[in-house]
Write a structure and sequence with these properties.
The relative contact order is 0.24. The protein folds into two domains: 7-83 and 198-231, Periplasmic binding protein-like II (D-Maltodextrin-Binding Protein, domain 2, 3-Layer(aba) Sandwich), CATH 3.40.190; 85-193, Periplasmic binding protein-like II (D-Maltodextrin-Binding Protein, domain 2, 3-Layer(aba) Sandwich). 43% of the residues lie in helices and 26% in strands. The chain contains ten helices and nine strands. β1 (7-13), α1 and β2 form a beta-alpha-beta unit. The termini are far apart. Strands 1, 2, 3, 4, 5, 6, 7, 8 and 9 form a nine-stranded mixed beta sheet that branches. The longest helix has 15 residues, at 17-31.
Length: 235
């Protein structure tokens, strides 16, 4: 007779942190199986999986999941859609909300900022390309501050004070505000330059607890979970 399952390990992208944590807690209550979740940027998740790190469930953007699937890291038939995250403009809680109603206004706001902060994750890669597209990379120069994570974007905006502008996933902004970080969401990026990042979940092919891993992956992609994620800014 097999021993009872005690722990599942989830490796997840940070933008879906709040929703994944809530679903994991509900799974623990319902099954008695402990779930540990480690959050990181998509590039770091790629490195960790490529290095052979063990996990039972992965939550990541489709491009990363496609790579994992090609490498045989994903259990067949377990991959499903979690939700989508949109990007927003973040300022210090004490700063007036800037005009980012369209691309021209967004550009003027960033050009006037004392600092523009984004991260090294998927949203930051998009932000860097957007700066280049709008001709702001050279104009802003040393005003551009690149940090490791979404949470660090908000912390840096808070530290630099009014005048600083951050670009981050709206879901991550909400998490940091809930933690007491003195920032606010000015607005989503204008529709014409908005970046939508999708996230999938799947059980790994190497899980030592395949049945439980499959069950957790199903729960993360269920209709009930989508309601949880929607409340955290993931739609």
């Amino acid at each position: 007779m097999s021993s009872p399952i005690s722990t599942l390990k989830v490796l997840s992208a940070g933008a879906v942190k709040s929703g994944v944590a809530q679903v994991a807690k509900e799974f623990e209550r319902a099954t008695g199986t402990r779930v540990t979740v480690e959050f990181n940027t998509a590039p770091e998740l790629r490195k960790r999986i490529a290095a052979g790190e063990a996990a039972d469930v992965i939550v990541a953007p489709p491009a990363a999941m496609d790579e994992f699937q090609k490498l045989g890291n994903i259990a067949a038939g377990t991959r499903g859609f979690v939700g989508r995250s949109r990007m927003g403009v973040v300022v210090h809680a004490g700063a007036p909300a800037p005009d980012v109603s369209d691309t021209a206004a967004f550009r003027r706001t960033l050009a006037a900022a004392t600092a523009v902060i984004y991260n090294k994750a998927s949203s930051g890669i998009y932000s860097a390309k957007l700066m280049e597209k709008l001709g702001l990379d050279k104009e802003l120069g040393a005003k551009i501050v690149v940090v490791d994570t979404g949470g660090a974007v908000m912390k840096t905006v808070e530290q630099k004070g009014p005048g600083a502008v951050g670009l981050a996933q709206i879901s991550e902004v909400m998490v940091m505000i809930a933690k007491g970080c003195r920032v606010k969401l000015a607005a989503p990026l204008p529709d014409e330059i908005q970046n939508v990042t999708s996230y999938d979940a799947a059980a790994t092919a190497s899980s030592a607890s395949p049945d439980a891993a499959r069950r957790l992956a199903r729960q993360l992609t269920s209709d009930a979970a989508r309601k949880v994620f929607a409340a955290t800014g993931i739609s």
